[in-house]
Amino acid sequence: SVLELGAGSTGLPGLTAHMLGARHVVLTDHLPELVQSLDANIRRCQESRQIHGAHVSAGTIRATMVRGHE
Fold this sequence. Notes:
- By secondary structure, the chain is of the alpha/beta class.
- Helices cover about 35% and strands about 20% of the residues.
- It has two helices and three strands.
- It has a three-stranded parallel β-sheet, with helices on one face.
- The termini are far apart.
């Protein structure tokens, strides 16, 4: 399983991890417009059969600072 934090617009490390054998991949970013781009990239990979037999998804994630750990 792979969780890519801050995947940007391509999610290349996470998608590459899937192509190398990861069965469950989640790509994240805090900007909704980048997550839309990630979704489109996942669809393109599914259509070209580069993603198969695994769960690959994208979503937003919100970073929160913890007091004392700034």
